[in-house]
Amino acid sequence: MLQQLQEIKKRGENHINTQDSNNYENNIHKTEEIQKSRIRCSRCEDELISDTEDNDLKNIGCDKCTNWYHLKCTGFKGKLYEEVAFSDFICGLCIKKTTLVTIL
Predict the structure, then answer these.
(1) pLDDT beyond 90 at 60
(2) C-alpha distances in angstroms, 41 versus 22, 69, 71?
(3) How far is CA 8 from CA 11, 12, 53, in A?
(4) What integer is the mean pLDDT of 47-63?
(5) Are 42 and 93 in contact (CB under 8 A)?
(6) CA-CA to 15 of 20 to 30 Å: which in 2, 23, 32, 49?
(7) Which domain holds residue 14?
(8) What is the number of structural domains in the chain?
(9) What is the pLDDT of residue 15?
(10) 33 plus 66 within the same structural domain
């Protein structure tokens, strides 16, 4: 239904009834909210999935900021999640900030 409404809108046709139009707008709004609420890897920007079996796709959060990363996007690539889950991790952005403050 959403795809049909999008095609009609692209063609510029005006024969969408009010209820379909309202549903279309509501669906677009809900889709945008869902996309915003998904947590994304701060490096590759792909969605983080917490229940994956693939170790490289598991997540680790920076100890200094609120950023989260796939293991594959960090120096932990190729390691078992169980080996790194309780390791200290500071992301590259925080390391750069610390380095700049130290230099200044």
Answers:
(1) yes
(2) 33, 5, 10
(3) 5, 6, 41
(4) 91
(5) yes
(6) 32
(7) 2-37
(8) 2
(9) 47
(10) no
Token digits of residue 88: 């200290």
Q: Name the pLDDT band for 100 (thresholds 50, 70, 90).
A: low
Amino acid (1-letter code) at residue 45: E
Residue 59 shares a structural domain with residue 95: yes
pLDDT digits (tens, 9 = 90+) for 11-43: 654 444 545 556 666 665 555 555 556 789 999
Domain with 98 in it: what CATH number? Answer: 3.30.40.10
- Residues 72, 98, single domain; the answer is yes
Burial (0-12, 13-18, 19+ Cβ within 10 Å), 27: middle
- Taking the C-alpha atoms of residue 102 and residue 98, their distance in angstroms, rounded to an integer, is 6
Q: Is residue 44 part of a domain?
A: no
